[in-house]
Write a structure and sequence with these properties.
Length: 405
């Protein structure tokens, strides 16, 4: 059957139990989705949009044809490559055998943001039972088996899935630790570098450049380094977890995954002016420059996000920043995933400064910001060594810091 329906639930501010907001209908053959708010939900005094950009409150069903018929906030709440692998492994199926609705419904209470998707209004609240930090060694082992295409013990796959509803391609899992929820990222089977150490150090470097980052830690589990990032869309009051809404920049702009020619930092900045304070737009400029300085070419719009807290929206803490590897002597010319300035996606300082006014910076002020960032990054090797990055890995990533030498 091509057409399927799900009830969309939302966790409203200061509430820990979700309420039904409306019905999502998806036609997998046509790649079209539609959503209609429920009348009772619209009568609530504290009703909020399930997607503040694509689905303002109203009674008229809204159609979507982009991203396979998924609204942006719905796509962000669905698992990505790694989460799909885990869900498929539990079902003992290939990921291709499952539909978008299957993945939306299968994701659990650790999914990003404040939405939930259920097959009926009577479906009970999902339990938030992610693995504890103490179980990480077993989680890492079963993740390796899934990556290798091997069959793993079903109870361990189920344990991993309880913490896996996140986006991204690398192995990860939400774990509970120190009275908080954390995203734990562990090594992939084909890694030749200690990515956990490198990501930890890069995030600390971003913090030195006045970029807001979540609380992070680097820990050893079973002799392997694991990068921990505290969930910024979750908070705890007493024994109750509360959720904040989240949409990626891709959803914020209502772009399709295939709209690569439209992806543009200044376009996002222009849209940010409608929803949030200028300070967030200026930080977005620093993030763009930082991606140039550390050669992070995986800066696509799903790797930038917005948090929704009630009727307010603001730039989320930074995430998923890792230098892209290049070879010494190849040259410093490269391109980011999104347009930077008048030279398009060319990753250089001149291009970054060419449209600084779009981010609220006069040319002279923007140049000062960049100069301060370069100064902060100049001794990057020392910070990376302190973070545990080996001399061999330092040598491999050094060409990525060509602008800072």
């Amino acid at each position: 059957m091509a057409e399927q329906k799900l009830v969309v639930f939302i966790y409203l501010p200061e509430e820990t139990v979700a309420v039904p907001a409306g019905i999502f209908t998806h036609d997998s053959e046509a790649g079209i989705g539609s959503f209609a708010y429920g009348r009772k939900y619209l009568e609530r005094s504290n009703a909020l949009p399930v997607d503040p950009v694509a689905l303002p409150l109203g009674e008229t069903p809204v159609l979507v044809r982009s991203n396979g018929g998924l609204y942006g906030a719905f796509r962000d709440a669905a698992p990505d490559y790694w989460g799909r692998l885990v869900i498929a492994a539990e079902a003992k199926l290939a990921p291709e055998a499952l539909s978008e609705i299957d993945f939306l419904e299968a994701a659990n209470a650790t999914r990003v943001g404040n939405l939930d998707f259920r097959d009926s209004i009577e479906t009970p609240e999902p339990d938030l039972v992610p693995p504890h930090f103490d179980q990480l060694e077993r989680i890492i082992a079963v993740a390796g088996q899934i990556e290798a295409g091997e069959e793993a013990e079903s109870h361990l796959v189920q344990l991993l899935r309880q913490g896996t509803s996140m986006g991204g391609a690398r192995p990860k899992c939400t774990v509970e630790w120190d009275d908080a929820l954390w995203i734990a990222k562990f090594p992939a089977k084909d890694d030749t570098l200690n990515i956990s150490c490198i990501e930890y150090a890069t995030m600390k470097l971003a913090e030195k450049c006045e970029i807001n980052i979540p609380e992070i830690r680097l820990v050893q589990v079973g002799g392997k380094d694991v990068f921990l990032s505290r969930r910024f869309d979750r908070g705890k009051t007493g024994k109750r977890w509360k959720r904040k809404g989240f949409i990626s920049s891709l959803s914020f702009m209502q772009w399709d995954e295939s709209d690569r020619l439209q992806w543009d930092y200044s376009a996002i900045a222009a849209n940010m002016r409608r929803y949030m304070e200028p300070a967030y737009i200026q930080e977005f400029f620093r993030r763009m420059v930082f991606n140039i300085l550390v050669r992070n070419t995986d800066d696509h719009p799903r790797n930038h996000g917005m948090l929704i807290d009630g009727d307010k929206m603001y730039l989320s803490p930074a995430y998923d920043i890792v230098p892209s590897i290049t070879r010494k002597g190849i040259g410093t010319s490269f391109r980011l995933a999104m347009s930077v300035g008048s030279q398009g996606r060319e990753a250089n300082i001149e291009n970054a400064l060419s449209q600084s006014a779009s981010f609220g910076f006069p040319a002279e002020d923007a140049a000062d910001v960049v100069e301060k960032m370069i100064t902060a990054i100049n001794n990057w090797q020392e910070l990376y060594r302190e973070s545990g990055v080996s001399e061999r890995d330092l040598e491999v990533i050094a060409p990525s810091f060509g602008f800072c030498d």
